[in-house]
Write a structure and sequence with these properties.
By secondary structure, the protein is an alpha/beta fold. The protein has 15 helices and 7 strands. Helix 11 packs antiparallel against helix 15.
């Protein structure tokens, strides 16, 4: 029984993932003790098992050319906006290249010195944001907000809007969604409900901008919190206040006459191409970059330094406590019915329009970011508008 771990492929995959994500050994142990309690764990046993599976934090056999190829591919797409720390995480996790941060920095220095300097990657000190913030622990306060800069003035440019949710204690991004709008209150409420159904946990409070899109979500939260004994008035669980490159492709399409932002067909064709592609990139950013990056100590907050995933999963290691409250299936069902959010369409295209798009490009989620402009032009050229 003691040696069963040697044949445990799931254990090997878990250990490879934690090393790839850059967890310190002590942090990896937290997850391994929780997920593989059938084995005895210590730093020594972890080291022994890493050696047995030939898992190394840094692999000297990875060539500079392999790193260059990965970085070059990222610089051709959304990765050109990444600093060297974020690029290092993406190279390790998306390309499985276990190399040092310095190795990635040196390659970026050779390939994109100007971009590296622009992103503050060379000797630039970033000013700390003023503020003083604390939280009791994960799921105490969730902050939700949208980003609609690509929509343009009066939503007249590109049909691309983002909405997301972050846990304020761990700074873990819980979900991100991109759609043709983020101002539909029932749509935003539906995304919030989907998160509650998935986790069966509701935060004690949510922090929102005071906009029309947040009304249904705020009502759902207060309604779902009405039976908890830690509050007198569920309305008090709603906090209002401000939250603290693909655009180049889009601008080119518009400037060269390929895309008309006032033509509804053009807008939906663009959404068909870009929304699955950008959702995929948002998920990669959430899971492989942000939630596994190491937050350094900040003197202006009372929040812990560490990796968001680790802080969220093991708050007791950071002198915090899990603060979320459970929701029953009956409570979730009632919130869904009372809010009416399930009546909202779950697709931004109608069925006939989508079928015609998929006839031309069956799998838009498999497109590379650098090919999105050509894909849109090809789609528009071959699209037959439904009668």
């Amino acid at each position: 029984m003691a040696d069963d771990w040697r044949e445990d492929l799931n254990l090997r995959e878990d250990m490879e993932r934690y090393v790839r994500q850059g967890y310190k050994r002590e942090e990896a142990l937290d997850f391994l003790k929780r997920d593989s309690p059938m084995y005895a764990w210590s730093i020594r046993s972890l080291d022994r098992r890493l050696r047995h599976f030939e898992i190394y934090y840094n692999n000297p056999e990875v060539s500079v050319e392999e790193v260059k190829e990965a970085v070059k591919k990222e610089l051709e797409g959304p990765g050109r906006l990444l600093g060297y720390r974020a690029m290092h995480k993406k190279v390790r996790q998306e390309y499985n290249l276990h190399v040092t941060r310095d190795a990635v920095y040196n390659v970026m220095y050779d390939l994109d010195l100007e971009g590296l300097e622009a992103r503050g990657g060379i000797g630039a000190k970033k000013k700390r944001k003023k503020g003083n913030f604390s939280s009791k622990g994960p799921n105490f306060v969730h902050s939700l907000d949208g980003h609609d800069k690509m929509m343009g003035y009066q939503n007249s440019t590109f049909p691309l809007a983002v909405y997301g949710c972050i846990d304020t204690a761990s700074r873990k991004i819980l979900w991100l969604r991109i759609w043709t709008t983020n101002s539909n209150p029932k749509l935003v409420g539906r995304w919030y409900l989907e998160h509650l159904v998935e986790t069966r946990i509701i935060s004690r409070m949510i922090r929102l901008d005071k906009g029309t899109e947040t009304g249904v979500m705020a009502t759902m939260h207060a309604y779902s919190r009405r039976n908890h004994s830690d509050i007198d008035d569920p309305i008090d669980t709603i906090l209002y206040g401000p939250s603290t490159s693909n655009q180049e492709h889009l601008a080119l399409l518009k400037d060269h006459g390929h895309y008309d932002p006032f033509d509804e067909i053009d807008r939906m064709l663009l959404a068909f191409i870009l929304i699955p592609l950008l959702q995929k990139q948002l998920d990669i950013f959430k899971d492989t970059i942000w939630n596994t990056h190491r937050i350094r100590a900040q003197k202006d907050t009372f929040l812990p330094d560490g990796i968001p995933n680790n802080i969220y999963s093991f708050p007791e290691e950071y002198d915090m406590e899990e603060s979320g409250l459970p929701l029953t299936e009956a409570e979730l069902h009632e919130a869904a019915i009372q809010s009416g959010v399930l009546d909202t369409d779950d697709d931004f295209l109608d069925e006939v329009f989508r079928r015609e798009c998929e006839r031309i490009i069956p799998h838009p989620d498999e497109l590379e970011p650098k090919d999105c402009s050509k894909a849109f032009i090809y789609l528009k050229r071959n699209f037959v508008s439904p009668a």
